[in-house]
Write a sequence for this structure.
């Protein structure tokens, strides 16, 4: 079965009756305040659980992509490595998504591939990360509840590895002319150059079923 099918199956599965009970109890006692995502804010214990889960999954995905990319660069240079941040990145992230039964993608304020552009409301999350970086802080991941009983976890992707600059740095300084030409050919609308170490490159977006509160109180 295709990983994508698995993910959708996992997401469309009916939540357990316990989960439904918890949700209806919460809905009954929470104030009707709405967050900017249109859903009621998460109780702190649920948010902590969501944060832990999101962090672990984004970490797995990033480690898998970075390792594959580094190996490919070492073995065959840029042309060999390019797919590991592009078309091979999708099966790799799908694998992590299917294993964890979540939806997983990358998004960015400066897309190389237009499909990685942020949705409405997501640019603000990226700006928040940039603001923190600008103040010399490590941006904290953001967790949001959705009206469809899922949570979305965003964690910043900051360029900390010089090897990223070979394809996302400054043309002429970090990016070789041949790489620049290849990128231009593959991505005529490329905005994903001009980065330096320490810059925000984008974010991981992990979406999963809202955790039940009772599992949070251990
Ligand atoms: C060998 C060239 C290459 C290297 C090295 C590279 N990337 Fe990429 N990167 C790409 C390409 C090509 C894409 C477009 C992917 C696609 O088609 O979705 C991309 C896309 C991305 C995206 C998705 C957003 C977008 O702009 O489409 C992120 C995030 C990203 N890269 C981060 C990184 C990070 C972090 C590193 C270092 C660990 C890195 N990249 C190293 C070539 C590279």
């Amino acid at each position: 079965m295709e990983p994508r099918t698995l993910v959708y199956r996992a997401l469309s599965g009916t939540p357990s009756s316990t989960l439904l009970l918890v949700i209806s109890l919460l809905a009954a006692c929470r104030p009707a305040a709405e967050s900017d995502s249109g859903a009621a804010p998460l109780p702190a214990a649920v948010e902590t659980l969501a944060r832990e889960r999101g962090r672990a999954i984004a970490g797995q995905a990033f480690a898998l992509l970075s390792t594959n990319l580094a190996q490919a660069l070492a073995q065959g240079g840029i042309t060999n490595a390019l797919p590991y941040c592009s078309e091979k990145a999708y099966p790799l992230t799908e694998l992590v998504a299917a294993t964890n039964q979540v939806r997983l993608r990358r998004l960015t304020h400066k897309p190389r591939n237009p499909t990685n552009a942020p949705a409405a409301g997501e640019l603000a999350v990226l700006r928040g990360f940039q603001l923190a970086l600008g103040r010399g802080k490590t941006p904290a991941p953001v967790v949001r509840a959705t009206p469809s009983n899922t949570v979305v976890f965003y964690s910043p992707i900051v360029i900390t590895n010089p090897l990223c600059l070979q394809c996302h740095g400054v043309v002429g300084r970090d990016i070789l002319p041949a790489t620049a030409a290849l990128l231009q050919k593959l991505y005529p609308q490329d905005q994903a150059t001009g980065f330096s170490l320490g810059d925000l490159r984008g974010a991981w977006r992990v979406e999963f079923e809202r955790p039940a509160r009772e599992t949070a109180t251990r």
Notes: The chain has one domain: 3-216.
